[in-house]
Amino acid sequence: MNEQTMRLNRERRFLVLLGVICLALIGGALYMQIVLGEAPCPLCILQRYALLLIAVFAFIGAAMPGRRSLTVFEGLVVLSAIGGMAAAGNHVYILANPAVSCGIDTLQPIVDGLPLASILPLVFQVDGFCSTPYPPVMGLSLAQWALLAFTLTAVLVPLGIYRNRRQA
Question: How far apart are CA 59 and CA 16, in angstroms?
Answer without folding.
Answer: 6
